[in-house]
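To make this tangible, this section ends with a sequence with its structure tokens:
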Amino acid sequence: MPRLLLHDTPLDGVRVVERQPLADARGVFARLFCTQELAAAGWTQPLVQVNHSSSARAATVRGLHWQRAPHAEMKLVSCLHGAVWDVALDLRPGSPTYLQWHGETLSADNHRAMLIPEGCAHGFQSLTDGAELLYCHSAAYAGLFEEGVDPLDAELGIRWPLPVPVAVLSPRDAALPSLAALRRRWCA
């Protein structure tokens, strides 16, 4: 019996992964990652890096980030504590869903994760204080290949569920370029 159910989203290649926990009087056991089960969704590389993030305050926005080739990465994002609005943005030229975004609520209670393919940006907004995420990556972090786009760029049209006070953006994320600025750089 599969422990990870894969559900398509409106974005090409982005999947919601629904964990099938086993529960009894002692508590709960849930599989967070399985290369064999995720292969059907395109995870063909080894699990290279696992990261953890914690957001102290609700409404915090992190992202939108991705890595360029040759360090492009697939991500599996799970919420371990609290809840977040998790967003994937398709930045793959030629994709049928290019420049479209999809958001899902991930929480410790709903046992859902987001599988984000290479070439898609990722970001999230914490819906609760103390939200914690676990990220599984198919490639190691390579700072020289990291990219980002302003998560508040009106052209993207991302509907964050909570108002986003500027104070909850990191200085790095607040300085991310707009989509228009990225396009100019890409065409230069």
Remarks:
- The helical segments are 35-38, 171-174, 179-187.
- The radius of gyration is 16 Å.
- The mean pLDDT is 94.
- The first helix runs from residue 35 to 38.
